[in-house]
Design a protein that fits this description.
Elements (H helix, E strand, L loop, with lengths): L2 H16 L2 H6 L5 E10 L4 E9 L5 E7 L5 E8 L4 E7 L6 E9 L6 E7 L26 E2 L3 E7 L3 E10 L6 E5 L2 H18 L3 E10 L5 E6 L1 H9 L4 E5 L4 E5 H10 L4 E7 L7 H7 L4 E8 L2 E3 L1 E11 L11 E6 L5 E4 L3 E3 L4 E8 L2 E6 L14 H9 L19 H11 L21 H9 L19 H14 L23 H12 L18 H13 L1
Parallel strand pairs: 8-11, 10-12, 11-13, 12-14
Antiparallel strand pairs: 1-2, 2-5, 3-4, 3-6, 6-7, 9-10, 13-16, 14-15, 15-19, 16-17, 17-18, 17-24, 19-23, 20-21, 20-24, 22-23
Helix pairs in contact: 1-3, 3-4, 4-5, 7-12, 8-10, 10-11
Keywords: Repeat
Protein name: S-layer homology domain-containing protein
Length: 551
């Protein structure tokens, strides 16, 4: 995040958020808020505040709502548009009484005061807990957009600041929940996170929306106002996570910028259980009784199905008693109904979730693809890794249902497995391939590797696919693949390539790659050595891919 830009943003936000109330009321400077009105909608739990402004230089005003006993119920800001403003503020069910609304120029000046009365309450008093065990309300003709019960929380970690807004929505009897995130609450979360990041000297800021619901869900819709999307983009937030009982989605910075640039209205994010009766027979056979999910993102009236950035999806799943967790996979159901395996998916036994990355949304389903080889014993050190890559079709073994784990790895085998692991498709009709690309299982992969600059071969337009691969060759090709996929590790581990005894044996063309992979924690070496000129076995290759994808 640009430091100068952040300093300007944080200075403004600190002034808006931390300015003492007494200063607002007593300062001699500042404009005047006029025509202030306030009203409360009992059915939606929202307060509508309108007004105008005279002489307000920054066009930003402060709004406060006070309880009947004088305690502060709400504090926020609004922006003037052609000299007037209108703000809809979610406060939930209010107790009976008269409430004051105060508004002033945030740079100074006197308060203007309006008030509204609550004659009867549609829920419990504001100082009491909501009883979430109450019967689920009947579904109205149009599902109610739940905006109540939001909580803000900011946490600081060594490398990032995470700001969380907790939102609770009411689930109707059909299992649908719609949650409309209030603009003011969300913007305060962003402001608080930026302030905390500046105070801590941290560059990375993540925003999280933690959704809770009152019943069993079949579908969830989370609505983010377009003003919030614009603020997220302009504040250069690194990621946005939507965490729900059905699953969670993390939007990375590149995706958020793209959405911000192309947004045509409010952003609607939908996570729902899919109707498996609509799956193709092939998909049903693979999925069986495991869950399937529909993910979608709408911007205004436009559906966004493909992104330039990456989305990280986490789905809860409880393995069946005899399931090997390494063989639990995710299938993407393409528009033709054909299931395609998601190779970067992995199940985490600690969280009880399966995680995968994608750049598009549609239907995804959990499946099970257990593959065993005659020469891989269950208690072998490489057994889990081989099961993992076989289940994801990263490897099909060698021959006669063998994997040949102790066999030496050649250059073609390595490049094919790495490219499959990261979902890089082979060229169907190679145009500019290596001279020894041949016409075999690796031909299209070598062509794609050359086209994507993953490999330029060994010279004279040769790749030498059958030659045993050295560790420095292996790591150079891995580095180029990760760079192409924008998957290079970004967080330093404190490890240094200079700490290894045989660093002087690394060829100059492999030094940059091995340095980056050592510092990123992908290469750990053995007994203080990197052994750049040694060769590796197929079992070691399986373990390497397993370790990288599991990080």
């Amino acid at each position: 995040m640009n430091k100068i830009y952040r300093f300007v943003v944080v200075t403004i936000l600190l002034t808006m958020i931390l300015l003492p109330i007494s200063n607002i009321g007593q300062a001699a400077i500042g404009g005047t808020v006029t025509e202030l009105t306030a009203s409360y909608n009992n059915s939606t739990g929202t307060v509508k505040v309108t007004g105008a402004g005279e002489g307000i230089a920054k066009e930003i005003i402060v709004i406060e709502i006070l309880k009947p006993n004088g305690d502060l119920l709400y504090f926020g800001t609004a922006s003037l548009d052609n000299g007037s403003f209108e703000s809809s503020i979610t406060v939930g069910a209010l107790a009976v009484g008269t409430y004051k609304v105060r508004s002033a120029d945030y740079t100074g000046g006197s308060y203007n005061v309006a008030q509204f009365s609550v004659a009867s309450t549609g829920g419990p008093p504001i100082d009491e807990e909501v009883d979430d065990s109450r019967p689920t309300p009947s579904k109205p003709e149009t599902p109610k957009q739940s905006e109540q019960k939001t909580e803000l929380q900011v946490e600081t970690e060594p490398s990032k600041v995470t700001a969380t807004i907790k939102a609770t929505g009411v689930t109707d009897r059909d299992g649908q929940t719609i949650i409309n995130i209030p603009t003011d609450n969300m913007n305060k979360v962003i402001a608080d996170a930026l302030v905390k990041a500046e105070e801590s000297g941290i560059n990375k800021v993540d925003i999280k929306i933690a959704v809770e619901t009152t019943g069993d869900n079949k579908s969830l819709e989370i609505i983010l106002p377009k003003e919030v999307i614009r603020n997220i983009k302009e504040s250069r937030i690194d990621s946005l996570t939507i965490d729900t009982p059905i699953g969670s989605i993390l939007f990375d910075e590149k995706t958020l910028k793209e959405i911000g640039d192309t947004s045509e209205g409010d952003l609607v994010i939908c996570i729902a259980y899919s109707d498996k009766d609509k799956l193709s027979s092939e998909a049903k056979e693979l999925v069986e009784d495991r869950p399937a999910f529909d993910f979608s993102v709408m911007s205004g009236e436009k559906q966004i199905s493909k992104f330039n950035g990456k989305l990280t999806v986490r789905i809860p799943y409880s393995p069946k008693p005899m399931e090997n967790v390494e063989a639990i996979v995710v299938y993407y159901i393409n528009p033709q109904g054909k299931p395609e395996i998601v190779r970067n998916c992995m199940y985490n036994e600690n969280t009880g979730q399966i995680t995968f990355k994608t750049n598009h949304f549609s239907t995804f389903a959990i499946g099970y693809n257990s593959i065993s080889f005659d020469d891989v014993q269950e208690d072998a050190w490489y057994s889990k890794a081989v099961s993992f890559i076989a289940a994801r079709n990263i490897t099909a073994g060698t021959s006669d249902n063998n994997y040949t784990p102790m066999g030496k790895l050649n250059r073609a085998q390595f490049i094919v497995m790495v490219m499959r692991a990261y979902g890089i498709q082979p060229d169907t009709y190679p145009v500019d391939n290596f001279a020894d690309g041949g016409n075999t299982y690796y031909t299209g992969y070598l062509s794609a590797a050359k086209r994507l600059n993953i490999s330029q071969g060994v010279g004279n337009n040769l790749f030498l696919p059958d030659k045993e691969i050295t560790r420095q060759e292996m790591f150079a090709l891995l580095y180029n693949t990760l760079k192409t996929m924008e998957e290079l590790p970004t967080e330093a581990t404190g490890k240094r390539i200079e700490d290894f005894f045989d660093v002087n044996l690394i060829e100059s063309w492999a030094k940059e790659a091995m340095k980056a992979l050592v510092e990123g924690g992908i290469i750990s070496g053995s007994n203080g050595r990197l052994e750049p000129k040694s060769t590796s076995t197929r079992g070691e290759m399986a373990q390497l891919i397993y370790n990288i994808l599991k990080k």
